């Protein structure tokens, strides 16, 4: 996604508003293929101040993922924020930081948008916060059914003490 900043650089504008969509079908995040249902919605702007050129962009998206507890597929909506300073020359291309370079009066936001989504993606994907997961014995999804498995684990060193309680 290329944005032309020539009017911002020549001083005829102070703000370049961004209200657009970015088409992204999927991303590979931590070994998972995350599919996006709709184009990503981009809202924000690029601002010129005395200290430089800055970007502040809200990225809203809807994606399909697999729950890490119950292994069911679910859909989630999320909003990430891309903000920072746009710099002229490539001084240090650090993998941790999101850097946007100005090249001939234009910037390319594609890599930065993808990097923000990857960094903002949850470490553990859950279909909902109170997901019960799978039974460790029989593997049934505990969100929909209950099983009769005994899931209490007793330390083998304390097994003899259990006999005293019986």
Global structural class? mainly beta
Task: Look at the structure and give the mean pLDDT.
Answer: 85
Helical content stands at 10-25%
Round the Cα radius of gyration to an integer and report it. Answer: 24 Å
Number of strands: 9
The general outline is: elongated
SSE ordering = EHEEEEEEEEHH
Biggest sheet overview: 7 strands, mixed
Low-confidence stretches: none
How far apart lie the N and C ends?
Answer: 70 Å
Quote the beta fraction.
35-45%
Q: Determine the number of helices (DSSP H or I, runs of at least 4 residues).
A: 3
- Please, how many domains? 2
Walk me through the structure.
- The chain has 166 residues and is mainly beta.
- The chain folds into 2 domains: 2-130, no CATH class; 132-166, no CATH class.
- It is built from 3 helices and 9 strands.
- The strands form 2 sheets. Strands 2, 3, 4, 5, 6, 7 and 8 form a 7-stranded mixed β-sheet that branches. Strands 1-9 form a two-stranded antiparallel ribbon.
- The longest helix is centred in the last third of the chain and has 11 residues, at 110-120.
